[in-house]
Amino acid sequence: MKNKLFEKYFIFTPYFWLVLFFFIPLAIIFKISISVSEWGMPPYQELFIFENQFKFNATFENYIYIFRDFYYIGSFINSLILALISTFFCLLIGYPLAFYIATSNVRLRNILLVLVVIPFWSSFLLRVYAWKIILQNNGILNLILLNLGITSEPLQLLYNQYAVIMGIVYTYLPLMILPLYGYLNKFDLNLIDASKDLGLNRVKTFIKVILPLSIPGIIAGSLLVFIPVVGEFIIPEMLGGSDRLYYGKILWEEFFVNRNWPGASALAFTGIIILVLPIVFFQIIYSRWSEKNEI
Amino acid sequence: MNKNFLVIENISKSFGKNKVLENINLDISKSEFFGLLGSSGSGKTTLLRILGGFEKPDSGRIFLEGVDITNLEPFDRPLNYMFQSYALFPHLNVFDNLAFGIREKFNKNEINSEVKDISELLSIDNLLNRRIKQLSGGEQQRVALGRCLIKKPKLLLLDEPLAALDKKLRSKTQLELTSLQKQLKVTFVFVTHDQEEAMSLSDRMAIMREGKILECSSPEEVYENPKSFYTANFIGIANTIEVYKKSNHYFSNELNINLELEHEAKKQKTNILLRPEKIKIKSAKDVKINLVNSFEGVVLEKSYLGSFTRYEVKSGNKIISVLDQNYNSNSNYNFPIGERVLCSWEKESLKILED
Amino acid sequence: MKSNIIKSFIIFSGLFFLYFPILILIFYSFNENKRVMVWKGFSFKWYNELFKNEQIIEAFIVSIKIAALSATFSTILGVMIGYSLVRIRKIPFKAFYIFLSSTPLVLPELILGLSMLLFFISLNNVIGFPSSRGQLTIFISHVTFCIAFVAIIIQARLTDFNKNIEEAAMDLGYNYTKVLYKITLPIILPSIIAGWLLAFTISLDDLVVASFTTGPGANTLPIVVFSKVRLGLSPEVNALSAILMLALLLIGIIYFYFNKKFKH
């Protein structure tokens, strides 16, 4: 059709960019993850070798290596547990906040929403750094605890898994609140009154009416927190200690310190398979489904 | 009338497996106010969108003044389309919305005078600097209309032009729209699901169902002489009675009476239509003669509607609706529920439904 | 009454939790003492030091440059994707297109950074470019993962604006290209600006991907800050935090203004 040439540019310019700079890099990770590692530069052998005859030089050694060593699996499990706990606390704090914001009057609601999201716009690194200051041995929290007589000497609050959880819950909380608010905001407040009118008390109304209707929001918010936390590197690095090793740190060290590129790639690709693909797959199916139901 | 102004020939359209239009044929005259009436899913809006050029038909052709416009893009067609949602440009004010379609054809002064003319015609000349958000529903409708009419289209397509207005405004706008169309002599083709709207606006109308046109004629003809059972029931209130041919007369099992028809029915068993206002209702105490084209029944329901009273009269297992005009405030014409009444009609009032 | 008190309490403590650390950070930035945690007196000393610190100033300029450029590129590409997904019916291998444009949203930065680095190394082995990594490679990586964020904003905006408006413009004589420039883009302009701002802050804030793809002469602000505070505290970073926090809060507010604008 005439005058529709721009549509081609619209589709293919970003297509080209993403294939080149996103898809091919992912493919390279996969390629290196099945390459034989060796000492040298680059620290792996070519996948395809031509020596008189063609040879496909692939191996699953790197994956086997990862799954045999508890050092790697353990860090993966640590990260999953960390993500689970952090998501839980984000939900615990975020849900009531989102709920009360959504049930406020329109004016207050918009102001509160902006207030909740604004910190998310300020520097991630510096917000984590703020907790480093708060949790110092002579930091504000210890000062309060000492003055209240709860403790007689400063507690070691920093450099352990609890500090990490604290930092994560703090920085990721807005990511939980936003989708929750989105769903809670959509539903009709009259439903709460209707439920009360039909004789359900506050608790039952919550369990039978409000909670089921906010499940999509809970799922969306939890995924937004859970997934990046599994791969989180900065927060454990700044606030964590040597008590727990996490996936991000292991991946970083495997690459930069041990210079084991195939190993790091195998770790990364395992992360993609476990975390990312299920969600993307789900999303594609969902968008197909909603397209079909539109017509 | 000058026929062949807009000719629609064998138009068919499917979305996936879903057949939306099947072999549509229409011939619309110049300056005609033409209605497409149907319930949702009848294909009426798809047909209008095909005329506007927003959908391409799978097969068939459209001619406007003899020119094949089937494959023209919307911006190349000498016609305009008014959307149900009005689709006003939210980032432009009323003036710029009105002037949108003539910006490239005219210079600044001409644009000003064109906008002035159309806005005075539609009495929206005091709104020109308003933003779209600041307009009421009725004002938006006028701006949408003005934005199309300023281009002086040969044909204006209107998708549910009154649906977004409240009831009171709707009847006022109905009259305005009719007089505007007669004044400008532009051909209007509009889509509606509201039978009253279709009746009061259209010179001619087509009744659509499941992608087909059931019949197409003037509102009077469609109301008085519908061809199909569906149309009879879709337009106004209808009593339909199943009758059987018997030598020289007809018989209804449901009412257990003999009937006389004006015309000969083609089939042995046929449905006939009897509009409720054609029925005369009397107390059964006064007269007791069992003629053809009448029956005796009991008043089952009654609702007083001001100028009319509507009765539901039961005879056997059949319920017949009767509209009785209250031309006399005398309570003689007022029958209580449970009263035995005699209903009768002229044989000209019985219409044979062919489908 | 009772429920109102609970409600106010929850909202208040929630906001306190969100803002307390930021306020503490700003508070300590005015501490005269070099030992961050011991209060010695109110002073602008560290702000002064900060502006004299060439390393930080230089990193700041590099970061702003990369952020502005990558926000611009990712906005252009993101608008194209958003438009394609909502308005264009026939996209070849559409599922793959959706995969490419949405996966960066959920991919941990670490994996993205690693893949970009390995890509640039491999590319260099094959075509001899880029011979070293630096601002260009950070820019490419940032564009790649910001596209998805812009695309999702544009997609949402286009989905809830009625297609009839574009059809009406066509009906009034505007062809496809003109409709795009006169109607579609002007109407979604607030979302385009919002998308740019989001991409800008994401790029400005990124540490992980930049750490992987950086090279000589391309220390971004987060990289410098991280090296200073990884193991301890730094009074200059406190001062920087206060400034950056306020600047980014401002961008956030502007973002909200544009993102809310179309929702009237």
Could you please describe the fold and organization of this structure?
The complex is a heterotrimer of chains A (295), B (355) and C (264). Chain A is an all-alpha fold and 295 residues long. Chain A contains 13 helices and two strands; from the N terminus they run αββαααααααααααα. In chain A, 73% of the residues lie in helices and 3% in strands. Chain B folds into two domains: 6-217, Rossmann fold (3-Layer(aba) Sandwich); 237-348, Nucleic acid-binding proteins (OB fold (Dihydrolipoamide Acetyltransferase, E2P), Beta Barrel). In chain B, 22% of the residues lie in helices and 34% in strands. The mean pLDDT of chain B is 90. The model of chain C has no long low-confidence stretch (mean pLDDT 89). Chain C is globular. Helices cover 78% and strands 0% of the residues of chain C. Chain C is mostly helical and 264 residues long. The chains are: A mainly alpha (295), B alpha+beta (355), C mainly alpha (264). Chains in contact: A-B, A-C, B-C. At the A-C interface, helix 1, helix 3, helix 4, helix 5 and helix 7 of A face helix 1, helix 3, helix 4, helix 5 and helix 6 of C.
Short recap of the structure:
The complex is a heterotrimer of chains A (295), B (355) and C (264). Chain A is an all-alpha fold and 295 residues long.
What's the helix-strand series of chain A?
A: HEEHHHHHHHHHHHH
- Structural class of chain A comes to mainly alpha
Low-confidence stretches of chain A: none
Low-confidence stretches of chain B: none
Percent helix among the residues of chain B? 10-25%
**Strand count of chain A:** 2
Helical run tally of chain B: 8
What is Rg of chain A?
A: 25 Å
As laid out across the biggest beta sheet of chain A, the strand order is 1-2
C-alpha Rg of chain B, in Å? 25 Å
Question: Number of helix segments of chain A?
Answer: 13
Say what the CATH topology of the largest domain in chain B is: Rossmann fold
Strand arrangement across the biggest beta sheet of chain B: 6-7-8-3-9-10
Number of strands of chain B: 20
The CATH superfamily of the largest domain in chain B turns out to be: P-loop containing nucleotide triphosphate hydrolases
**What is the string of helix and strand elements of chain B?**
EEEHEEEHHHEHEHEEHHEEEEEEEEEE
Helix/strand/pairing class of chain B, anyone?
Answer: alpha+beta
Q: Main β-sheet of chain B, in a few words?
A: 6 strands, mixed
